[in-house]
Amino acid sequence: MTPIAAGIAAAVAAGYYIDGKYQFSKDFQVVRIGGKSRRLFEHFEATKNCSLYNRFEDQCRIRPFSVALIFEGASYTWRDLELASNRIANWFVGNGIRRDDRVAMMMHNSPQFIMTWLAILKIAAVPAFINNQIAGPVLVHSLKVADAKMLVFDYEVEPSVQGCLKEIQDLGYRLFTATPKEQILGQVYSHLPEDVRQTIQLPTYFGIMDWQRCSTEGFPTSTREHVAMKDPSALIYTSGTTGFPKAAIMDHGRCTLATHSWGMMCDIKPEDKVYISLPLYHSAGCIIGVGQSFTTGCTVVLARKFSVSNFWKDCIMYDVTHVQYIGELCRFLVNAPEGPLDKKHKVRMAFGNGMRPDIWGNFQERFGIKSIFEYYTMSEGTGALFNLAKNKRDQGAVGFRGPIVRLLQPGFKLVKVDMDTEELIRDKKTGRCIECGTDEVGELLTLADNKTHTSRFVGYFNQPKMSKAKLVEGAFEKDDVYMRTGDLLYKTKDQYWYFADRAGDTFRWKGENVSTAEVGDTIGRLDGVASCTVYGVSVPGQEGRAGMAALSLKESIVLPAGSDGREKAQVDEAALDAFVKRLSEHCAKNLPGYAVPRFIRICEQELETTGTFKNKKFDLKKEGFDLVKIQERMYWWTPQGRYVRFGQAENEEILAGRARL
């Protein structure tokens, strides 16, 4: 070997060694894609081409007759979606919706969801995506915050709308169902003869969107020239650390960055097909899942909802190349019996968030998925973590931040927090937050600098106090501002970042954020409840945390220990049985299924509070539903939708993984 060749070989070997140690190539990819996305952002901003709808319109010009969407066997080209959304947009205009108006959408996954969303964007109005599982006070609150002119809903959720009709009407909403009358009659009254069905009168408090008869004439790009990157493209509700859902503002700028960045990180091409079974009222399914197709030109294969039995069948049937996930979805797939379809698909990448380390390797190996793109972000967040995982070293991390990324994006900090009070711990001398060391769990803070579009904090719509509560001033320097994510993470010495838990009053269950304050407020309205503390507990073999509520009841039901000097609590058994029955009915009626506490603990002493009268829950969380530590009565939520006594037999069912929660 010549000296030159030897030198080249040595340089290459040194390069591989350095890259293996510091993983510059992973950093370069993130920086390259980030830079390209920012340049596109700046170009669109300079040319007054900011609207997210314009990205969809670009694809309609480039590939009008390519398939944009597949849903339950039916295919829709880009032109099909454009013409249908033109009709719906003209219907909205004809019904008084103008630019900057808000329209609430309470709909299930379907082509009509996407068409309606596009129609609203097309006329420069703003959609508010309402969770289709909510009802009662939570639904009223969400609509009140949106302050929209109209609510468009699928007929399937009509009982939830009717359940709080007066409150919704008092807010000034006009109500329309997006479901055609013929479909309603077919779905609900299919058991009746055709002549009888035609005589049925639907409720009169809502109208029917008869958009199919409207004009297909489109709306020129000039209709949206006034739209700025900072303007909202959608209101997407997210459960925060306190209170009812908050409406995060997804502005056109963040959507522009997200749709381009995710498409490039996942290397999605126009010929690819992306399978989405997540709900579209979440930013993951809607903005990242469907939205990336507006920039990549790929085909979206949309499922009405996630189904273990249909997941791989759909992927095989439609030649899917990418699938979107949340961690719970992956666990369901891994826990399903092995079958011949496990590796017959063409999926080469799964992208999403919440893939837990204990199933990551099994998921990737069993289903033959070459790459996992795990990310961490929030609807209202000011930054994101990325981990494009191709080997075992990458598995389990929500992000990787090598030396280049840390240099260019320094605004990610893990800081110490009091796990009981949830207050940030500050240095007594300087008053600044204290950064965590290697492998030390802390809350993630992200820079909220409104001078740059990548770290701009928009906050929550119509909720300035909630928005301000997310910010920390003077965290590390006199004039800096950071956003509290409410999430606990830790990082290793080689700069892999791992999710540890959710801090504060929110936990994840069934892929949803559950606000303990919201659940506690709902239960607290039930007669008989004196005090209520809600928290999440770990359950073996289950993703996230199951809801548990510790209740102190009124003395007519449970006279607590310590009252009148008594050593033990006095329980009125008949009154307690009646209360538990009412509690079951109350939770089923007023809470989304995922938010119903799986365990109830009837406390025989007053709940302990802090000096500011907040219920302490640290010890309650540690005890969980452990029958060794808890001598008080417990109940659990059964598949039949009611609470029954929880004892050793039920505990063994859970530990053996046989119980359905």
From TrEMBL:
GO terms for cellular component: cytoplasmic side of plasma membrane; lipid droplet; peroxisomal membrane. It is a multi-pass membrane protein. Residues 521-614 form the AMP-binding enzyme C-terminal domain. Its main location: membrane. InterPro entries: AMP-bd_C, AMP-bd_C_sf, AMP-binding_CS, AMP-dep_synth/lig_dom, ANL_N_sf. Signal peptide: none annotated. One of its GO terms (biological process) is long-chain fatty acid import into cell. This is Very long-chain fatty acid transport protein. It comes from Entomortierella parvispora.
